[in-house]
Amino acid sequence: MLRRLPIHYLNHLAGRDQALLAPPGTQQLTMRAFWVGSFLSFFLAVGAPYGNMIIRGSYMALDFSTPGAIFLFLVLIGLLNVLFKIAASPLGAVAWALVSCALYGFYYGWLASLDPFAPGFFFATFIVASSLINMLLVSFGRSLVLNRAELILVYVMLLIVSALCTMGLSEQILPMITAVFYFASPENKWREVLFPHFSAREVLVNDGSDSKTFYEGLAPGEAIPYAAWVEPLCWWAVFLLALYVTMVSVAVIVRRQWMERERLPYPITQVGLAMVRGEERGLKINTFFRQPAMWLGFSLPIFFGSLKALHRYDPAFPVFSLTSSIHLVGKQTLELTVSFAMVGFSYFINANIAAGIWFFHLLAKFEKEIFALAGVTSEQKVTFGVADVSLMAYQGVGALLAMVGVGLWVGREHFFNVGKKALGLAPEVEDGDEIMSYRWSFFGAVGGVLVMSCWLWIMGTPLWVAFVFVVLALCIFLGLTRIVAEAGLAAVRAPMTAPDLVILGLGTDLVTRTGVWNLSLAYMWGADVRVFVMATCTNALKLIEEMEPRLRRLVFWAIILALFIGALGAFWMIFHMAYQHGGVNLNGWFFKGAPETAYNTALRNMEPAGVHWPGLGFLSGGALVMGAMMWARQRLPWWPVHPIGFPIGANGMLNFVWFSVFLAWFIKKMIMRFGGVALYRRSQMFFLGLICGQVSCNGIWLVIDYFTGKVGNSIFWA
After folding, report:
1. For residues 334 and 657, what is the distance between their CA atoms, to the nearest angstrom?
2. For residue 596, which of 651, 512, 528 has the smallest C-alpha distance?
3. Which of 144, 250, 365, 601 has the highest local Cβ count within 10 Å?
4. pLDDT over 70 at 570, yes or no
5. Which residues sit opposite 323 in a β-bridge?
């Protein structure tokens, strides 16, 4: 039997692009969108590291929830775009320019010591510059008011920057390439064991004093040793550019399969879509802010979070704990943590998927206890992921890779069409609605893999090991991206990272000691990351369905611009903060904990070891079980749970997430049972309010702490 999509459904997909938020031909993208998007991207890139290193407040770019992007987008649609509308008349434009210039001159003119790295200075300068640009535009009959398509472009850029500015890259890489010199000591034996395996190419930074000034700050009269950074950052720029081009290319290749053929729900994008759809021509206030249910949900995290913040100012304010734990079985406990944002995101997850997430987390607890009772252990130590039971880490990553393999098989028709289109063998395949052609996507992905593999080979890793590692890393990223797109988990980690899988699975004898060292450096982008570009780009591509196809190619250039702004802006801020204040005084985990973990892991893995057959056996077992469950879900109507929770069920990250998923699942079940679909749709605004309230509480108190000088006022973790 010939299997293909029904012709009526294909016609529906072909015409769906015409079902836009505005009549065809009326949407436009102008330079004002790039102006606003570039500044907000830069502000997020410098503000997020400043917030968690100087203010030491809540993280705004830690997970796929992208709180910084949501908060700045709320500021854009609720304040800035309203200001742009008010100033769209000649009188309003002149008034805004005069007031902003006067306040700017008064404040910074009287300020004794101006901090050129303070986010407040950047924001104030943007407001003044925008007022002058707006006055010029108004004189030509235009303004800075952003339409829906332009708002989408700005939000896409913010999503991309969220994956780079803190946990995803920037706060990892600068300490990682310097700390090995600063923290080396006779006790840790790094010089004796690790240093002989350094590449002849300068990919690490040693300014001649073991990077002392980077960690302790510059003494009066000392200059930043820029020359020591040039060659290492150039080498890493080559690798990272290849990595992110590959991630964006893969996101483009899978977009049509996931969105149009498999119809994945993309729950995390719902908050952005709701805000964009609330922007209506002729209205100054976005209709998203006119929803009482949204404000009701918004008020809950604001109330609980503000009490926690005020308690740090004055202990007289009460605090309500949102975390507890209960005993489950044996030595296993269950964490009961309520995150308002996680509840909000999880409310948009398919009920069957949500049930699979919390069910497999509970099942993993029992499996861990059975392993403990049976004495099933492994001498290997997994650094991130399922760190307490390494064999279950192999099991989980095997299931994750099986999920990726099944997904590629299910979408084989589409992926073959992409390949044929790229090679010029299928001109009938349409790719005009993508942000880049299938040819560029295909060769971007293939070329990126080859560049990364050759880069690792040049550094001393065996070529076949480098290639296997890069492919496995991308498969793990793709699997997590699928979980984010389908399950909507805003905080998730791989059960086992690619560096651990290759080094521990294949063994030092095959990987070689130099290979172990090089793959350990990959911890900065492939291990201790809770957000990455492939997943945020995939969510961004969901948003562009609301744009006319003729505008989408501009989004590609916006993504490239955001990649450069995000990386360079965050690097610049972290670089100067370290030399100004001393890295050891900023963030203990990024400047000491994470590098020491990577280097000590490399040291431990230098010991001779062969292939870890028990681990690979559990990997194969996890893959077989996952494959069987995916087959059962497709073939057996009575199959009770979605298997997507199986790869990540044992992951420590789920300890803090599962209860929020369970709460959202339970509430949704009750609403659907007693109120039906109509009540469910009306209730969605309340849960969007939970998300916006939590990220706004984090953002508002960061602003307050910035002006008051309060340090350590972290409120919500995700």
Report:
1. 11
2. 528
3. 144
4. yes
5. 337
Those residues with Cβ within 8 angstroms of residue 458's Cβ, 6 or more apart along the chain or in another chain? 199, 201
Distance (Å, whole) CA 158 – CA 72: 8
How many structural domains compose the chain?
1
Find out whether 165 and 531 touch, Cβ atoms under 8 Å.
Answer: no
Give φ, ψ of 337 to 5 degrees.
-115, 130
> What DSSP string describes 250-286?
HHHHHHHIIIIIS----GGGHHHHHHHHT--TT-SS-
Contact yes or no for 621/398 (Cβ under 8 A) = yes
CA atoms of 558 and 552, how far apart (whole Å):
10
What is the identity of the amino acid at 579?
Y
Integer CA distances (angstroms), 21 to 141, 149, 543, 546, in order: 24, 9, 12, 6
SS3 334: strand
CA-nearest of 38, 277, 41, 270 to 147 is 277
State residue 378's pLDDT score.
82
Encode pLDDT of 598-631 as tens digits: 999 999 999 999 999 999 999 999 999 999 999 9
Within a domain: 293: yes
CA dihedral for 316, 317, 318, 320, sign (positive or negative) = negative
Contacts made by residues 463-467, CB under 8 angstroms, sequence distance 24+: 465/502, 465/506, 465/510, 465/511, 465/512, 465/515, 465/519, 466/515
Site of tokens 């080498």? 235
- CA-CA distance, 203 to 694, in Å (whole number)? 40
Q: Are 277 and 21 in contact (CB under 8 A)?
A: yes
Angle at 258 between CA 248 and CA 638, to 5 degrees: 145
CA nearest neighbour of 47 among 161, 169, 214, 173: 161
Report CA-CA distances (Å) from 450 to 243, 447, 530, 539: 10, 5, 25, 26
Dihedral sign, Cα of residue 702, residue 705, residue 711, residue 716: negative
Domain of 584 in residue numbering reads as: 29-87+144-708
Q: How many CB atoms lie within 10 A of CB 679?
A: 12
Taking phi over 0 as left and psi of -120 to 50 as alpha, with beta for the rest, 5 belongs to: beta
CA–CA separation, 609 and 617 (whole Å): 17
Question: Which pair of tokens denotes residue 650?
Answer: 């044992």
Whole-angstrom distance, CA of residue 697 vs CA of residue 714: 10
Q: Is 193 exposed, middle or buried (0-12, 13-18, 19+ CB in 10 A)?
A: middle
**pLDDT given at position 335:** 93
Structure-block tokens of residue 120: 């407040």
- Give the whole-angstrom CA distance, residue 471 versus residue 452: 10
Cα-Cα-Cα-Cα dihedral of 390, 395, 401, 404, to 10°?
-130
Q: Specify if 537 maps to a domain.
A: yes
- pLDDT at res. 20: 44
CA distance 615 to 620: 9
Q: For residue 657, what is the enclosing H or E element?
A: none
Measure the CA–CA gap between 390 and 290, rounded to whole angstroms. Answer: 50
Q: What is the pLDDT of residues 653-697, one digit of tens each?
A: 899 999 999 999 999 999 999 999 999 999 999 999 999 999 999
Domain membership of residue 644 (yes or no) is: yes
Both tokens of 582, joined, read: 């001393």
Nearest Cα neighbor of 630 from 488, 486, 491, 490 is 486
Question: pLDDT band at 2, cuts 50/70/90?
Answer: very low
